[in-house]
Structures are given as structure tokens and as C-alpha cells.
Amino acid sequence: MKNIILSLAVLLILGLPATALADNLVFNAPATAPNAGNGGPNQVDLDHHRAYTWRIDNVNLAGQTITAATITFRNISNWDSNPNMLFIHLLDAARNSGIRSFVDASGTPVPTSQIVDNFAGALYNSNPLVAPGTANTFLSARSFTTTASNYVYTFTSDQLVALNTYFQNGNNIAFGFDPDCHFWNNGIVFKMTTVPTTVPEPTTLILLGTGITGFYLKRRKRNL
User: Fold this and answer.
1) Domain housing 105
2) How large is the average pLDDT for residues 3-28?
3) What domain count does the chain have?
4) pLDDT confidence of residue 6
5) HEC letters along the chain
6) What is the CA radius of gyration of the chain?
7) Main-chain phi, psi angles of 25, to 5 degrees
8) Domain with 95 in it: what CATH number?
9) With b meaning 16 or more CB within 10 Å and e meaning fewer, what string describes 130-145?
10) What does the alpha-carbon distance between residue 149 and residue 143 come to, in Å, rounded to a whole number?
11) Rounded (10°) angle between helices 202-223 and 2-14
12) Claim: this prediction has a pTM higher than 0.90
């Protein structure tokens, strides 16, 4: 009994580091294209002719706060050396679950000068993948070479605020991707770290630890 009480007191006084309470959640986009080019078995179709949404559902973060998040495009590369851009947005929601797309560019091939973001400005207002008025946070725009590499985008503090808010609105979020060229890849991965919204203050932990220690000493004195 003595050892148990003293061990509890030490743990409470020292407190558990916040990282010990963290939870890491990982979401992998479903593969929508065969292994081709410089891609891989988890490839997501990112074609210049289309714009895409990826909706992630049923994520209950009650009592949790997101403290970090990344989105990774594995083994991504441009299929040729023409000018290109991948636009990436965080959305409050999308009309449909999973990955959906619509044709946003015509021509075979699409003119290399046709680099526009269908999740921005007036084009967003007419985007059939999202309902009118859907909240939208721009994350990044990035070009790629023909050499495959892993692209990891880390959310800023303001983007984390938006991410927390969007999940609170309905336990789901979505990403909007507008690839203005064809990009090979080996999958898209979204990761986030959450911690409990309320964590005991160090002072509270010390008082609890002191109380347990005092209880033990009083009990010991009484038994002498």
C-alpha cells in the first residue's frame, strides 16, 4: 500500500506530459486510378481535365482539440515538363462522400495556359462539388517536376483553427483539389494530432499529489 500511494503521489506531482495525452489520426484517400507513370498502387487520379473533392466523414472530436495536421502527396510528379499547378483547399464539407470530381477543362490535351483554381472566386460559387456558401480555406498551390517526391504540407495555426471549426460543424471535412496538369502519385494521406480540450493545470496536479502524500503520512503516524 505504501509503495502504491507514494507512486501515485509522484505521478501526480510530476504530471503527465501533454504529448502523452495526444492521439494521432490517419486518413488515406481511396485509390481511384491504376498504378501508372511514376505513381503506385494507391494512386489518386489527378487529371488536368477535372477538379476533385475528398470528404472525410464520421470523425467525432468531442472533447478534443486538433493541435497539428499535415496532408501528404506520396511520390507525386508532373507527367511532363509543361507548366503546372496543384491547388489545395480545406472545405467545411462536400456534397458527396469519398472522392468525387467534375470536368472543369476541355481540350486534348488541355492548353498548358489554362491554369485556374476551381475552388476560388466566382468558379467556386458554381462548383458542383460543394453546396453554395460552404466554408473554404485555401491551403496551398504547388507545382511539381517530372521527378517523383513526397510533398508534405503542414497546416498553419490559422488553418488549424478552421479545421477544428469545420469538424465541429458536422463531424466531417473535405479537401478540394484542382490539378492543372496530370500528376502521378502513390496516394494522399491526411494526418492530425488531437489532445483533450481541458488538461489539469500543473498547480492542480501538485495539490492532488500533496494531498495523497499527506494522507499517507497521517496514516503512518497514526499507526506508530
Assistant:
1) 21-199
2) 60
3) 1
4) 39
5) CHHHHHHHHHHHHHCCCHHHHCEEEEEECCCCCCCCCCCCCCCCCCCCCEEEEEEECCCCCCCEEEEEEEEEEEEEEECCCCCCCEEEEEECCCCCCEEEEEECCCCCCCCCCCCCCCCCHHHHHCCCCCCCCCCEEEEEEECCCCCCEEEEEECCHHHHHHHHHHHHCCCCEEEEEEECCCEECCCEEEEEEEEECCCCCHHHHHHHHHHHHHHHHHHHHHHC
6) 24
7) -115, 135
8) 2.60.120
9) beeebebbebbeeebe
10) 12
11) 160
12) no
105 found inside a domain: yes
Strand partners, 52: 101, 177
Write down the pLDDT at residue 107.
78
Tell me, yes or no, whether 108 lies in a domain. Answer: yes
The reported pLDDT for the residue numbered 203 is 52
Is 2 inside any structural domain?
A: no
Q: Cα–Cα distance between 82 and 73 in angstroms, integer? A: 20
pLDDT at 17: 52
Tell me if 221 is assigned to some domain: no
Q: Which of 90, 198, 82, 194 is nearest to 139 (CA)?
A: 90
Separation CA 18–CA 205 (nearest Å): 13
